[in-house]
Amino acid sequence: LDQLLGQPDALAPETVKTLVSRSKGLPLVMEETLAALGDMDQLHWDSSVNQWSVGSGEALSSLPCSLAELHTWRVGQLTDVERDALERAATVGPVFWRSLISDLGTPHAAAILRRLEDRGFITPRAVDNLGDEQAYGFTHMSLRPLLVSQCDPEAVALVHGQTARWLTTHAADADMRWLGVIAWHFSKAGQ
């Protein structure tokens, strides 16, 4: 918790005890619980005691206790445009690109992806394997399958087809490793 919140003893001991108990000591569950509290605007820095405080005990007790349920709850708090962008990204794969998400129909994709990054859903990838394209990935491996399971199958097929066509124009012609990825997306699109 100290590492997540950036300093030792960042939370009051009674809050730590409750958080550890509710999460069964699982670090990812604690991390997502803190993120959910932030989403609810219930996590505040109290400079008088140099600690983070939870706005209300009800806020913490109202949150789910499992990682999948926390992911579902947090995704449910997103705007429609943010959720659509995240679902499109999940359909593309574990790595996706800003301009592809834009081309898939997300308005103001750079700003939307920045908000999703700020909220801890995605993270930029240091290694960009498509030239000048900004690559992203999901912060948690378990988030992508959850998102894909919530998508409409027809929308998924459409995104796969668009992704395959996008990759044919953006992947380097000489880089043969993209051929399998492109073929997989065309196959998932039924094309």
- Sketch the topology as an H/E string, one letter per element: HHHEEHHHEHHEEHHH
Using only C-alpha atoms, the radius of gyration works out to 19 Å
SS-derived structural category: mainly alpha
Instruction: Please indicate the percent range of residues in DSSP E strands (runs of 2 or more).
Output: 5-15%
Q: Which word captures the global form?
A: elongated
Mean pLDDT: 89
Distance between the termini: 48 Å
Characterize the structure shown.
- It is a single chain.
- With 191 residues, the chain is mostly helical.
- It is 58% helix and 9% strand.
- It has 11 helices and 5 strands.
- It has helices at residues 2-5, 13-23, 27-39, 57-62, 67-76, 80-92, 98-103, 109-118, 143-149, 153-170, 177-188; strands at 43-46, 51-54, 95-97, 122-124, 135-138.
- The strands form 2 sheets. Strands 3-5-4 form a 3-stranded antiparallel sheet. A two-stranded antiparallel ribbon has the order 1-2.
- Helix 10 packs antiparallel against helix 11.
- The longest helix has 18 residues, at 153-170.
- It is elongated.
Comma- or semicolon-separated keywords:
191 residues; mainly alpha; 3-stranded antiparallel beta sheet; elongated
Task: Reconstruct the topology from this structure.
Elements: H1 2-5, H2 13-23, H3 27-39, E1 43-46, E2 51-54, H4 57-62, H5 67-76, H6 80-92, E3 95-97, H7 98-103, H8 109-118, E4 122-124, E5 135-138, H9 143-149, H10 153-170, H11 177-188
Antiparallel strand pairs: 1-2, 3-5, 4-5
